[in-house]
Amino acid sequence: MQGYILEGFPKNATQLEYLKDLKIEPTLFVVLALPFEQAVERKRQRDKHISNEDIESLRRRTERTKDFLQYIETSYNSHMLKINAATSAQNVLENVGFQLENI
Fold first, then answer.
1. pLDDT in tens, 40-65
2. Looking at the domain assignment, is residue 2 inside a domain?
3. Domain-located, residue 79
4. Which residue, among 27, 10, 7, has the nearest Cα to 19 in the 3D structure?
5. Farthest CA pair distance, the chain
6. What is the pairing mode between strands 29-33 and 80-84?
7. Residue 30: beta bridge partners?
8. What is the rounded CA–CA span in Å between residue 56 and residue 64?
9. How much is the pLDDT for 26?
10. Is residue 7 part of a domain?
11. Where are the extended beta strands (E) located within 1-103?
12. CA dihedral of residues 73, 94, 33, 67 (deg, nearest 10)
């Protein structure tokens, strides 16, 4: 497989439509799935002074991402590679690599 990796893009339906307008059709979406509570815990490990405001911001971003994933699943479900990110970073990396090699 050859192409480009657009990390964190598109983040919403508008950005996806922009890609389509440019005649750029995504061939694969790699989704790293992590429960919200684990995302908060990881953020706490990186930032010992996480505020309630930070947690609320993370919650809103998580909800927007869920909404967008539901949107793209309607048209791109066969193009989605979902990876369980609730394991160690090394395991996630190995799993992504393995999955990409076997497409």
1. 999 888 888 889 999 999 999 999 99
2. no
3. yes
4. 10
5. 44
6. parallel
7. 81
8. 12
9. 87
10. no
11. 29-33, 80-84
12. -40
Handedness of CA 2, 17, 6, 55 (dihedral sign): negative
| Integer Rg of the chain from CA | 15
Q: Using CA atoms, how far apart are residues 47 and 43, in angstroms rounded to an integer?
A: 6
Count of domains for the chain: 1
Domain residue limits at 60: 13-101
Tens digits of per-residue pLDDT, 72-94?
998 888 889 999 999 998 999 99
55 close to 40: Cβ distance less than 8 angstroms? yes
Evaluate whether residue 40 is within a structural domain.
Answer: yes
3 in the Ramachandran plot: left (φ > 0), alpha (ψ -120 to 50) or beta?
A: left
- How many Å apart are CA 80 and CA 72, to the nearest integer? 9
Single pTM value for the model: 0.75
